């Protein structure tokens, strides 16, 4: 591994393993590490959730957190022809 100045360090420049055209750098390792932490955390948090009326305090807390997250308009597409079209109704 080559020594680089501190102001020129990028995770893409730090190569951990290379074989032919396949190269593994620190960016790939960090990405997979974050994905593993997210998947492991979600499995750990949701392992004992139930659909019964009697839920645990932890599940109630999670449901309160999820229900207070505002709905994003990103996935809500505008409806077409809501009766305001100029061609008249079909």
Textual characterization of the structure:
With 90 residues, the protein is α+β, with helices and mostly antiparallel strands. The chain has one domain. The protein contains two helices and two strands; from the N terminus they run ββαα. It has helices spanning 26-46, 57-68, and strands at residues 15-19, 22-25. It has a two-stranded antiparallel ribbon. A hairpin with a 2-residue loop joins strand 1 (15-19) and strand 2. The mean pLDDT is 77.
The helix content, as a percent range, equals 25-40%
Count of DSSP strands: 2
Model regions low in confidence, pLDDT < 50 over at least 5 residues: none
Strands of the largest sheet, in order across it?
1-2
From the alpha carbons, calculate the radius of gyration and give it in angstroms: 25 Å
Largest sheet: 2 strands, antiparallel
**DSSP helix count?**
2
Number of domains: 1
- SSE ordering: EEHH
Using the alpha-carbon principal axes, give the shape: elongated
Helices and strands: which structural class? alpha+beta
Q: How far apart lie the N and C ends? A: 69 Å
Mean pLDDT: 77
Strand content: 5-15%
């Amino acid at each position: 591994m080559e020594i680089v100045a501190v102001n020129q360090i990028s995770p893409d420049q730090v190569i951990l393993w290379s074989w032919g055209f396949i190269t593994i750098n620190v960016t790939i390792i960090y990405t997979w590490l974050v994905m593993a932490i997210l998947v492991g955390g979600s499995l750990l948090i949701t392992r004992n959730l139930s659909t019964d009326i009697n839920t645990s305090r932890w599940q109630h807390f999670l449901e309160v957190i999820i229900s207070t997250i505002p709905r994003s308009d990103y996935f809500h597409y505008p409806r077409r022809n809501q009766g305001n079209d100029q061609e008249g109704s079909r």
